[in-house]
């Protein structure tokens, strides 16, 4: 992974919903928590503007982060993020500690490539639909990819790409596939546009009427 993210944090001693509201309203800080591993959960405060800037990078969501807590560093992933429903405001962040020898489960983005040169689109008149924008994977922290690439170049029309079709880096598995074939969900498909199908059906009906 090419990027390195450091999240600066301070220990938060004043807890509760009222305290969290005051924190966000008066200090431009947001409440957070880091948990997991053999250590106790620790309540934190983060600078809102720093977190907003970090979140502009897609890699932040699927990266091993360095959480700097008053000079002490811990490795963690962003496990949950609560946003304000109407404003560009972070309400709370959860970080999960990671250990290099313990597998983690993380949602990573799917990057669809070569869609314009896709056989099913360019030569067969199909249209691509995305059924998923990310996938949950299981791997060791050192094997965590920033994204999974889905190469659409050689995909033909009337094809559905499922979790099991994804090309994964070494040491990475799709978490859902551990639970059986029923969890092998689609991520993309190529079909004829609905309008074209309607036109074809109308043309066939007209031809049949003419033959009568």
List keywords for this structure.
6-stranded mixed beta barrel; 19% helix; 4 helices; elongated; 4-stranded mixed beta sheet; RNA Polymerase Alpha Subunit, Chain A, domain 2; alpha+beta; 2 domains; Ribosomal Protein L25, Chain P; 212 residues
Structure description:
The structure is a single chain. The chain is α+β, with helices and mostly antiparallel strands. The chain folds into 2 domains: 6-98, Beta Barrel (Ribosomal Protein L25, Chain P), CATH 2.40.240.10; 105-197, Ribosomal protein L25, C-terminal domain (RNA Polymerase Alpha Subunit, Chain A, domain 2). 19% of the residues lie in helices and 38% in strands. It contains 4 helices and 13 strands. The strands form 3 sheets. The protein has a 6-stranded mixed β-barrel. The protein has a 4-stranded mixed β-sheet with strand order 10-7-9-12, with no helix packed on it. It has a 3-stranded antiparallel β-sheet with strand order 8-13-11, with no helix packed on it. A hairpin with a 6-residue loop joins strand 5 (72-83) and strand 6 (90-97).
Structure summarized in a few sentences:
With 212 residues, the protein is an alpha+beta fold. It is built from four helices and 13 strands.
Helix content: 10-25%
Structure classification:
alpha+beta
Shape: elongated
Main β sheet profile: 6 strands, mixed, barrel
List strands and helices in order, with pairings.
Elements: E1 6-11, H1 17-27, E2 29-35, E3 42-47, H2 48-55, E4 65-69, E5 72-83, E6 90-97, E7 104-113, H3 119-122, E8 127-130, E9 134-139, E10 148-151, E11 159-162, E12 173-174, E13 186-191, H4 194-211
